[in-house]
Amino acid sequence: MATPIDLFRGWPNPALLPVESIAKASSVALSTPSIFQPGLQYGPDEGYEPLRQHLAEWLTSFYRPKDPISAARICVTGGASQNLACVLQVFTDAAYTRNIWVVAPTYYLACRIFDDAGFMHRLRGVPEDAEGIDLDCLERGLQEAEAKASAEGNTQPRYTLPRPWSKIYKHVLYLTSTFANPSTKVVSVRRREQVIRLARRYDVLVISDDVYDFLQWPSDMSASNSPSDTAAVPRLVDIDRYLDGGPIDDFGNAMSNGSFSKLAGPGLRTGWAEGTDRFAYGLSQTGSSRSGGAPSQLTATFVDQLLSTGTLQRHLSSKLVPTYQMRYKEVMRAINTHLVPLGFRVPASAQPIVGGFFIWLDLPTGLTGSVLADRAAAEENVRIGSGTLFQVEGDCSEGRQDFEGSIRLSFGWEEFDLLSEGVERVGKAAHRILNSRPRSAHFVDDYSNLND
Q1: Where do the DSSP E strands lie in 161-241?
Q2: Could you tell me which residue ranges the Aminotransferase class I/classII large domain spans (predicted)?
């Protein structure tokens, strides 16, 4: 059997983790009483204060909003996934909040977090379009949901305990607005402004996973490997901060969900959320934080050492971004050589940047993602992601998409020397499928049972 190749796993390659820098940062933290004494305690609800301050400075330098970001807008979290669960605990009520609207295809593991919060079977997929999200489809869905809630008398939150730090939103919109997982789309600035205006009209909390923002490079394959030290597009949370005079209330309608998982290591379990001052404080009042203390209190002191010394910033600019850009180019060259001639297509993008960990491919007629993933694993020992994995679980609405006509490839995990070979093997599996039966109108149906 050929060497196994994994083009599915969305983890950072171990060789790219700053192990020595983390060891030094932890050594400094654990040998300095003014750091380890608070670091080993429960910590303030909002998180380790020095990290909040240094995060605010770092984010300001990267996103360049009109005014500096304050530490009051930031809450330290246990990572993007843990924080998503906390946001739902504080800012939604499963008996009142109508639906979770999810831009599809989506990061599939988020669906269970929504289910656990009481929204099983109330997730609704919103298609992407050329600018990142089909806003007409979303607005129609919001209108229908409001009509249904009005008919059912669901006009007030059922959660009646006094919670002055909280607001219960009618709707939640979840997306990765920059380098979406899996499609890698970037929502245009125009569409971001439209999303915020729509969110304000329908009382929507927009949760944007901004976990790939720092991993960006030019989409031009001939461009140099020099990284950009500023964001190419403003975040939704920044647009909500300024658009049309700013937020319509103290909580706002957008939050940024950030994480160090792809930058320094998932095991650190450290991230941040940014929103209005009141939103950030409300998030810090999640019951688990009030009882157990700030998430990741000790590792937050390690991460703060990385940020405050500029170590993480240098790691990003000198190693992570150039390496991932090189990996992206390697896989794209292999796609153009081995897959495009078979009819595979990389969806077009008008954005001047690409980034993240993934490449989304549309399949040629006569091929389905689930069949190709199975055959690539069985015959070529290569793991890829079938598009079906990235549908919105539990979405039973009309027009639900299954994404059988697509696959996702990851270039973040596997060793560099195996990336091109992995794509070539996927091409071999696809070639055998495409040539095994006569092409006909029923070709896909003929192969639909190969997974059984």
Answers
A1: 171-175, 204-209, 216-218
A2: 19-411
pLDDT in tens, 346-356: 987 777 889 99
Alpha carbon distance 218, 225 (integer Å): 9
Q: 384 to each of 176, 331, 361, how far by Cα in Å?
A: 21, 13, 11
Closest CA to 327 of 4, 2, 13: 13
Q: Strand 254-259 relative to strand 271-274: parallel, antiparallel, unpaired?
A: antiparallel
Q: Select the CATH number that applies to the domain covering 18-309 from these four: 3.90.550.10, 2.60.40.10, 3.40.50.1980, 3.40.640.10.
A: 3.40.640.10
* Topology classification of domain 5-12+314-433: Aspartate Aminotransferase, domain 1 (3.90.1150)
The pTM is what?
0.94
Residue range(s) in the chain whose domain bears CATH number 3.40.640.10: 18-309
H or E segment and range at residue 254: strand 254-259
Q: Residues with Cβ < 8 Å from 255, sequence gap 6 or more?
A: 87, 205, 206, 207, 208, 237, 273, 274, 275, 279, 283
- What would the two tokens of residue 322 be? 């150039």
Burial of 350 (0-12, 13-18, 19+ CB in 10 A): exposed
Query: pLDDT tier at 305 (50, 70, 90 boundaries)?
Result: very high
Helix %, strand %, coil % of the chain (to 5): 45, 15, 40
Question: pLDDT by residue (tens digit) across 236-276?
Answer: 999 999 999 999 999 999 999 999 999 999 999 999 999 99
Domain with CATH 3.90.1150.10 in the chain: 5-12+314-433
| Joined tokens for residue 360 | 């989304």
